[in-house]
Amino acid sequence: MHLSPEEWTAIWLSLRIAIVATMASLPFGVLTAYALARWNFPGKTLFNGLVHLPLVMPPVVTGFILLILFGRRGVFGPFLASIGIVLSFRWTGAALACAVMGFPLMVRAMRLSFEGIDRRLEFASSSLGAGRLWTFALITLPLAAPGIIVGSILGFARALGEFGATITFVSNIPGETQTISAAIYSFTQAPGGDAGALRLTIVSIVIALVALIASEIIQRWAEKRVASFE
Amino acid sequence: MIEVDVGLDLGTFKLDVAFGNGRGITALFGPSGCGKSLTLGLIAGLSRPTRGAIILDGQALVDVEKGVFLPPYKRRIGLVFQDSYLFPHLSVRHNLLYGRWFAPPGRKEIEFDAVIETLGIDKLLGRRPARLSGGERQRVGIGRALLSCPRLLLFDEPLAALDMSRKLEIMPLIERIRDDFKVPIVYVSHAIEEVVRLADRVVVLQSGKVKVIGSPNEVFGADVSAVDDRFERSSALTVTVGGADAAYGLTELVHPAGTIWMVGPAGAPGRPIRILVKATDVILATAPPPETSIRNVLMGAVRSIHAVGPLAMVDIALDGAEHLAAVATRHAVDKLELRPGSRVFALIKATAIDERMAAASS
């Protein structure tokens, strides 16, 4: 199977966007999941709803909201541009769209794993002299690792497949914002593009399979590490 | 040295306790729901009291009136849980060293090697908690708490999840921790055998209130006659080891009120030990018993009789010293015409005394 330079560009761009989107949202995902699992604060239900909104809204709507907020003439756009961050019609904007779309999936998996940790382990840790941050770093985080990994993979997979929000927010510019999904869409819109669409489809399937298998292996390893009983 | 004087109002349940401990083991004893684990949680910092203060070595851990609350990680109080709660992702060695790492540099008096040796866990160091048996897990749990060099150790029903032979393995270890490492211990349990064997001081809790505080002998003498559950009524007797009957495998225990034969060896003659006699194992007679299989007869006088439904809780002042709690039917008490002051022969089956729970008496 021979891939054209344009197709390679789309593949590398997709991977880069998905990886950056996952990495950048990881700390926020962990914090949000922990807050939802452990803290009670006013407006928690509303906050939970906001986090999950991209999961239930049409992606195009999410993309359009991003455009309103972060577009060149959007709410935060001019300010961000003044400090050198331009998101609209850039690959960074695609990463933002993918991060937002993958965030609810990521948080759900992580929240479950935080909720599954016996709090008495954390209490044992603090009785041994470890403050909150130490307990979080040494006990909570490692025990939640399987869920954090699963959440990250889910977020990554969602980012790879993101189409609607991305194309609405940053359009479909080859070499800048054209991901695999967008490239497949372009191929199907042009006469004689079926072969290219098929090639990229096969690439998508391979990437998805590799990610799934890798997550399975990592998760199994992580679960073994934190298992209480064997 | 800890001084506890706190109240906690949970709406449906009100806790109000005051006690102190010195050296050795202080047991919080009572039926489930009496507030003993809640009290432990207040000492450890798991929850906040609504009234009062807890002072450890002169430092206020919590003082509601002064607005002081020290978070658990600053209290330096070691906890041993029923289910040990070892960190599953760390090896036994790292579990043991966890608290030590956080202990203040000048306060690491307790030596790693000494603890490993005492607890007999040197072969487990490389393993993961998942690969330990229940007894091993509890040893490591005790070691982990001890190695954080705490000012106080709290045990929350540490033996409740173990079978009898594991219990008998762990109990001497707890005694050695008290004696060798000199860490004061507050020990929560609803098992009277453990308390009689281990405790220097017993705080009996009932419905969130302290009912009585004293040595096991004082507490499990007749002073707890208000325990209306006949199976919970027991007496701790202090006896001296007398001769042994090697041929029959028995030991003679001397009490001013009579002689008790106990199964098995009990150490050197002259050694004082504490035994536990359950009220339901005591038979009362008004005349010297004829030939029966019962070997043990203690003499005394009825001090009080307290009727509970069809039962009569009989409190006997033994000749010489101490009290013995007995329970009989009201019918039997009336037939024997027992009343305060009556002379009685208290018969105890030799086999009913658990020699494994006999403790050295201080």
Automatic annotation (TrEMBL), chain A:
Cellular component aspect of the GO annotation: plasma membrane
Domain ABC transmembrane type-1: 11-218
SUPFAM superfamilies: MetI-like
InterPro entries membership: MetI-like (IPR000515), MetI-like_sf (IPR035906), ModB_ABC (IPR011867)
Keyword Transport tagged: yes
Membrane topology, from the record: Multi-pass membrane protein
PROSITE patterns per record: ABC_TM1 (PS50928)
Record's keyword terms, sorted: Cell inner membrane, Cell membrane, Membrane, Molybdenum, Transmembrane, Transmembrane helix, Transport
Transmembrane segments: 12-37, 49-71, 91-112, 133-157, 196-215
Family: Belongs to the binding-protein-dependent transport system permease family. CysTW subfamily.
NCBIfam families attached to this UniProt entry: modB_ABC, PRK09421.1
Annotated PANTHER family: MOLYBDENUM TRANSPORT SYSTEM PERMEASE PROTEIN MODB
Protein name, per record: Molybdenum transport system permease
Lineage summary: Bacteria, Pseudomonadati, Pseudomonadota, Alphaproteobacteria, Hyphomicrobiales
TrEMBL record, chain B:
Xref: SMART domains: AAA
Taxonomic superkingdom: Bacteria
GO annotations of cellular component type: membrane
Entry keyword set: ATP-binding, Cell inner membrane, Cell membrane, Membrane, Molybdenum, Nucleotide-binding, Translocase, Transport
Pfam family of the protein (one): ABC_tran
MF annotations from Gene Ontology: ABC-type transporter activity; ATP binding; ATP hydrolysis activity; molybdate ion transmembrane transporter activity
Signal peptide range in chain numbering: none
Protein's organism: Methylocella silvestris
Protein transport is among the record's keywords: no
Name by which UniProt lists this protein: Molybdenum ABC transporter ATP-binding protein
Family membership: Belongs to the ABC transporter superfamily.
Residue ranges constituting the Mop domain according to the UniProt record: 291-357
Domain ABC transporter: 1-232
